[in-house]
Design a protein that fits this description.
Length: 495
């Protein structure tokens, strides 16, 4: 009898444990994998997408923001009024917002942030976003007015970029090492070379996130990324760097594979002021020497959409111009001979860390070799690439994915790293910036696509996919990437 009661007790206890487990609260922590580590923590002074991937919407906020479907919605500005002539925007801010250090966020902080971004000596990587703003006026603590030199149909879009977030003047001296935003998460710790820990902001002005903690782990090696996901050391890897193993994850019910789109036009950029690449015939030869599909298959294992210009294929105004630079090595050799290089030439090919660049670079170097061009590969860490290529313009060729949304306007900046200077395109982009009629905007942006494709400014490869792996119990991560971000504000675990 005693044995029977003992067995019953064990059975009841086991049932109780099972019942407790069944109703256990979902997890509130998350470990996210990233291939690149941010060079610093200031989203307003660098072109490194890794900064926004950690901080956008999580730690820093702007007047407006992108949603998962690319729409522009209010953020720190809860509403705005536009004057009839389109030259004045009056923003009403959310009241009671504080920075993570406890300082109140007011219209004065917004003015400081925008004035800093558009200042003559600004280091903002997207300073051009703010050039049409002639004045920022504080009306009161929660109201300010932006005055423009011409109507700008892109203003609310531009203010949603990570480069336009609101920063705190009192802590600006430490912004690269100490993040002080208004967002729902606070940077708790940055262990360089390893991780950044975020914790929930208990004083957040808006809706509290369901996660209490999120850790961004930096894993540069694709094989190590695979091992970390399989072992459960990482819960999500939104931009997974080893596409060759995605089929393995798809077959495993523990995981969900994301196959979305990004704003990332992946290009073989050419230094248009380099002695060789200043010749359009040489640039055209390079474009025709490239077999896009071989790069997509070899470097991306079939993931990626071919592009023939600098515009996202999922955008309704996109034109498919891939045929204009179709793979044709014989034509490439003819063009090189016409340009005075019958035996080809030697140039540099500088590659940043992402696997699409490193793997793609090897394939491209071989393809260029077939037409007589020797591309000497140099691999760079991200900070080195930013210093040597992006800022220093010390390169012949490079591969990079431009993940900023609707960024064809970079071709109107002669001082941008590929140094393309075309007055006609600059006038066209200026007209586009002031256009508000959708039909007119479509016509202008399609003309811009044609213009840069006709001039073979760069060799256009593919649109970077949002190929990711996540634990199947995680919900709320963006499937597509309308901007470079890992927005955690709506992420949660299911039971």
């Amino acid at each position: 009898m005693k044995s029977l009661f003992a067995r019953l007790a064990v059975t009841v206890a086991a049932a109780g444990l099972s019942l407790t487990s069944a109703f256990a609260a979902p997890r509130t922590d998350l470990a996210i994998g990233m291939q690149l580590e941010p060079p610093h923590l200031d989203p307003t002074s660098a072109a490194a997408g890794a900064i926004d991937q950690v901080l956008y919407a999580n730690v820093y906020e702007g007047l407006t923001r992108f949603t998962a479907d690319g729409a522009i919605v209010p953020a720190l500005a809860k509403s705005w009024d536009i004057s009839d002539d389109g030259l004045s925007y009056t923003f009403t801010l959310e009241d009671g917002v504080t920075f993570h250090n406890g300082d109140a966020m007011t219209a004065a902080d917004v003015k400081f942030s925008l004035d800093r971004a558009r200042a003559e000596h600004s280091t903002n990587a997207q300073k051009a976003l703010f050039t049409g703003i002639t004045d920022v006026t504080v009306i009161d603590d929660v109201t300010l007015r932006l005055t423009l030199d011409a109507p700008n149909g892109q203003l609310l879009f531009n203010l949603a970029w990570g480069d336009a977030v609101v920063v705190n003047e009192t802590t600006i001296a430490d912004i690269t090492t100490t993040a002080n935003g208004t967002g729902p998460f606070v940077v708790d710790r940055w262990v360089k070379g390893d991780r950044i820990d975020l914790v929930r902001n208990p004083a957040y002005w808006g809706e509290a996130p369901q996660l209490n903690k999120a850790t961004f782990r930096f894993i540069a090696d694709p094989s190590a990324s695979f091992a970390a996901m399989m072992a459960g050391d990482i819960d999500a890897f939104p931009n997974y760097p080893a596409p060759e193993t995605l089929a393995q994850f798809s077959a495993d019910p523990r995981f969900t594979v994301i196959n979305g789109s990004t704003e990332g036009e992946t290009i073989l950029a050419m230094n248009n002021k380099d002695t060789v690449f200043a010749d359009r015939r040489v640039r055209k030869a390079v474009a025709h020497a490239i077999d896009r599909q071989a790069i997509i298959d070899g470097a991306m294992f079939g993931f990626g959409t071919p592009i023939g210009t600098h515009f996202a294929p999922h955008h309704p105004d996109y034109i498919d111009l891939t045929g204009q630079s179709a793979y044709d090595p014989a034509l490439a050799k003819t063009l090189l001979a016409e340009a005075g290089y019958p035996n080809g030439f030697t140039t540099t090919l500088k590659l940043p860390p992402p696997s699409y660049a490193r793997r793609g670079g090897e394939i491209i170097a071989a393809q260029l070799k077939d037409v007589g061009i020797t591309a000497e590969i140099t691999t760079l860490e991200w900070a080195q690439w930013l210093e040597d290529v992006f800022r220093g313009k010390n390169y012949g060729l490079t591969i990079v994915s431009h993940t900023e949304p609707y960024d064809i306007g970079i071709y109107a900046r002669p001082d941008y790293y590929f140094q393309y200077d075309n007055a006609d395109l600059q006038n066209l982009i200026s007209t586009l910036a002031g256009a508000t009629n959708p039909d007119q905007r479509r016509d202008l942006v399609q003309k811009a696509q044609l213009m840069i494709a006709d001039d073979y400014v760069n060799a256009y490869l593919f649109q970077l996919p949002q190929a990711g792996v996540i634990n199947a119990r995680i919900k709320g991560l963006w499937e597509n990437a309308p901007t470079q971000a890992t927005d955690l504000t709506g992420v949660y675990w299911t039971d």
